[in-house]
Design the sequence.
């Protein structure tokens, strides 16, 4: 693994997964600290947040969101990308509990690969339909193939 710190939890001990199943969680930030991501393998997902976004437009809070609305968050799971998040937790926000994914390096989260570069963090499925996104301070790109 290129990512130095991986947090591994055996959820079966908590009754949250079938016996013998292991879920791997990865929590990282970009070298600038502005992009924070978290992902896991059961089910497979990745969520990334731009703490300070200068996106041309941000999605408005949906009427059915009665929690905190995070417009500068992208998520990928089940080969689908979502923009914005209605959540009651801190989500992918890094405090002291995540590692820095250096520019030019990547981490695999099951079938999803996230790569850090000076122009943002790109997370995409690596086989089949290459759905995914690139998130950056200035904006984002979505692949829904």
Sequence:
């Amino acid at each position: 693994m290129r990512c130095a710190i991986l947090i591994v939890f055996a959820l079966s001990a908590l009754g949250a997964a079938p016996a013998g199943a292991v879920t791997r969680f990865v929590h990282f930030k970009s070298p600038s600290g502005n992009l924070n991501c978290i992902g896991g393998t059961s089910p497979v997902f990745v969520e990334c947040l731009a703490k300070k976004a200068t996106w041309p437009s941000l999605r408005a809070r949906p009427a059915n969101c009665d929690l905190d609305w995070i417009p500068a968050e992208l998520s990928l799971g089940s080969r689908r990308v979502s923009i914005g998040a209605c959540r009651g937790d801190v989500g992918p926000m890094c405090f002291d509990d995540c590692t820095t994914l250096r520019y030019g390096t990547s981490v695999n989260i099951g079938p999803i690969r996230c790569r850090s570069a000076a122009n943002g963090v790109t997370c995409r499925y690596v086989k089949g339909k290459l759905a995914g996104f690139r998130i950056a301070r200035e904006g984002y790109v979505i692949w829904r193939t």
Observations:
- The longest strand covers residues 68-77.
